[in-house]
Amino acid sequence: MRYPRFVRLSALIVAVVLVAVGCSDSSGDGDDAATDKGRIGIALPTTVSARWLIDGDNLVYEFGKMGYTTDLEYADDDQAKQIAQLEAMISSGARALIVGAVSSTGLTAVLAKAAAAKMTVIAYDRLIRETADVDYYATFDNTRVGVLQGTYLAEALGLKAGGGPYTIELFAGSADDNNSQMFFDGAMSVLRPYISDGTLVVRSGQTSFEEVTTAGWSSAVARQRMTRILDEYYGSARLNAVLSPNDDLTRGILTAVKAAGYRGATLPKLTGQDAELESVRLIAAGEQGHTVFKDTRKLAQAASQMTDAALTGGEPQINDTAQFNNGVKVVPTYLLQPVSVDKSNYESVLVGSGYYSADQVGS
Question: What's 119's domain CATH number?
């Protein structure tokens, strides 16, 4: 995968710094970094998706501005590895943990250790379930993400204007990620009525969340499933649309449909999420129809503000105290809004906001 230029550059800078100091600590630059307010442990799930690398860079930057050092670790989608990383952060005396969980469950014991050490715990983008020891949650409105995906497909196919029937296949994220169900439910709130009345036809018959999840958010798994569906259910029939929950899966699905002979105007309408640079370029080229932009700069700002306020006696910014029940408690949450992006607005939204440069997206 080709990562955004600024991500690859920052990764190189971090690597040089780590060699120089012989440890995994990072910090901001300038005068703020000289004021050491303690260490923040940042545990993120994977480096496979470019968005998590951007998240890591953003969190290190935001905490550095506030005067904190950071210990940033990636778990390679391995929950046991993430637990070991969290335990090391707790043992080393980190003041708080920012956790983008590999799995929404299974962290109860390690977070109990964090609570015993009086550490603040922030669930980052993915809700951590089955524990009382998560203090706050910073995320986007993930049901809204799904609604935006479903709405794009409905509008791109012109479903309100009648016509059809149109064929569609459904994909969801990993079953162990709490957000996956929210994305799917949001999209299906738009699409299900059209499936029920026959305007949309799922030729595979796979319409339940359990049938369409993608283990580990794996692009390869999505590509293989799409290939099987095309081989078994389509033949000479044309696939008109695919609900895909994120850009990485979308690119795998796109590989499968192109291998089956789809090109140009025959390509199905494809959704996505995260506005990854490779997918933004595909949108500009007319191959991927849509993505959902979640400005992770703002998410990092929200998580760092929550943390700093909790550690300094301030008031963490919260705008939702009812929606996110993790099975043990309702977790106080700061909810950000996602933005729908397609060929008509990718430049204004992504380049206009400074998230990417015009050179990066090729505009």
Answer: 3.40.50.2300
Give the dihedral sign, CA 98/48/276/203.
negative
Q: How confident is the model at residue 24 (pLDDT cuts 50, 70, 90)?
A: very low
How far lies 107's CA from each of 36, 66, 86, 123, in Å? Answer: 29, 28, 9, 11
Residue type, 179: N
What's the predicted TM-score (pTM) here?
A: 0.85
pLDDT at 12 over 80: no
- State how far the Cα of 167 lies from the Cα of 189, in Å rounded to an integer: 18
CB atoms inside a 10 Å sphere around CB 30: 8
Give alpha helix (H) positions in 233-295. 247-259, 277-284
C-alpha 109, offset from chain centre: 25
Q: Which domain holds residue 270?
A: 142-293
Residue 209 in any domain: the answer is yes
Examine the domain organization and report whether 108 and 176 are in the same domain.
Answer: no
Q: What DSSP element (H or E) covers 193?
A: helix 178-196
356 three-class SS: coil
Dmax over Cα atoms in the chain, in whole Å? 66
Residues 160 and 242 both lie in one domain? yes
Q: What pLDDT sits at residue 9?
A: 41
Residue 309, Cβ neighbours under 10 Å: how many? 16
Alpha helices in 288-357 (DSSP H): 296-312, 346
Mean pLDDT score of the chain: 91
Q: How far apart are alpha carbons 103 and 183 in whole angstroms?
A: 16
Helix (H) or strand (E) holding 73: strand 69-74
Residues ≥6 apart with Cβ < 8 Å to 122: 96, 97, 98, 99, 134, 135, 136, 137, 138, 303, 306, 307
Cα 178 from Cα 285, distance rounded (Å): 32
Looking at the 3D structure of the chain, how many domains does it have? 2
Q: Which residues of 257-278 are buried (b: 16+ CB within 10 A; e: fewer)?
A: beeeebeeeebbbbbbbbbbbb
Tens digit of pLDDT for each residue in 105-164? Answer: 999 999 999 999 999 999 999 999 999 999 999 999 999 999 999 999 999 999 999 889
Residue 307 has φ and ψ, to the nearest 5°, of -65, -50
